[in-house]
From TrEMBL:
Listed name of the protein: Transcriptional regulator MntR
Family matches, as SUPFAM superfamilies: Iron-dependent repressor protein, dimerization domain, Winged helix' DNA-binding domain
Organism: Owenweeksia hongkongensis (strain DSM 17368 / CIP 108786 / JCM 12287 / NRRL B-23963 / UST20020801)
Record InterPro entries: DtxR_MntR_Metal-Reg, Fe-transptr_FeoA-like, Fe_dep_repressor, Fe_dep_repressor_sf, FeoA_core_dom, HTH_DTXR, Iron_dep_repressor, WH-like_DNA-bd_sf
UniProt-recorded Gene Ontology molecular function terms: DNA binding; DNA-binding transcription factor activity; protein dimerization activity; transition metal ion binding
Similarity remark: Belongs to the DtxR/MntR family.
Length: 219
């Protein structure tokens, strides 16, 4: 059994370490968890003593196999609960993250497996993030981002990079959600902004920042 705080640290380190050979820095962990660097250092020592990570002062932090397993299980529970909250309880995709942060710490393996089965073994959460299976394997992403698409490209929204409530509410206002179809009608060379048609009806302009944060699949 591990505390909520310990699981949150392991999950944060898992995300920050992806694509980095050096691992996660103390400052990056502190920023992600909104805490002080001194508090992070204390917790890293505790997790190191439990053989959950490899920590050397002034160097990057990496998870051990055991630490990574716990982190991925926590991610799995979080994303399954997000699916449940949206699909079964009618929560908006901008609402579910904070609730799932609480539910992800439930330790029952039987509950997690039954939840997965009840939901039909979903591969992606409401934001399009991949859900690892019970062995810790993530489905492979084949999407690109909207910013990489050219004029006259027709795409379908598969996920978002930015899962902040502000960004998700903005997309809702535009009528853009998972499964929405976009036609790129114009792309500005100057700033990367785009003029798009949404679901063959409404038209709008999207900034480069928005295009960067949308995962799409070309049709």
């Amino acid at each position: 059994m591990y505390t909520f705080t310990e699981e949150n640290y392991l999950k944060a380190i898992h995300f920050l370490s992806q694509g980095s050979e050096k691992g996660a820095t103390t400052n990056a962990i502190a920023e992600r968890l909104e805490t002080k660097a001194a508090s992070v250092s204390d917790m890293l020592k505790k997790l190191s003593d439990k053989d959950l990570l490899i920590y050397k002062k002034y160097q990057g932090v990496k998870l051990t196999a055991k630490g990574k397993e716990i982190a991925i299980k926590t991610v799995r529970k979080h994303r399954l609960w997000e699916v449940f909250l949206v699909d079964k309880l009618g929560f908006g995709w901008e609402e579910v993250h904070e609730v799932a942060e609480q539910l992800e710490h439930i330790q029952s393996v039987k509950l997690t497996d039954r939840l997965d089965s009840y939901l039909g073994n979903p591969k992606y959460d409401p934001h399009g993030d991949p859900i690892p299976d019970d062995a810790g394997n993530f489905p492979k992403r084949t999407e690109t981002t909207l910013e990489e698409c050219e004029t006259n490209s027709e795409v379908i929204i598969r996920g978002v990079k930015d899962t902040s409530p502000e960004f998700l509410r903005y997309l809702e206002k535009l009528g853009i959600g998972l499964g929405a179809k976009l036609m790129v009608e114009e792309k500005e060379e100057f700033d990367g902004s785009m003029r798009v048609k949404i679901n063959s009806t409404s038209e709008t302009s999207l900034s480069a920042a928005v295009c960067t944060n949308l995962f799409v699949k070309q049709l």
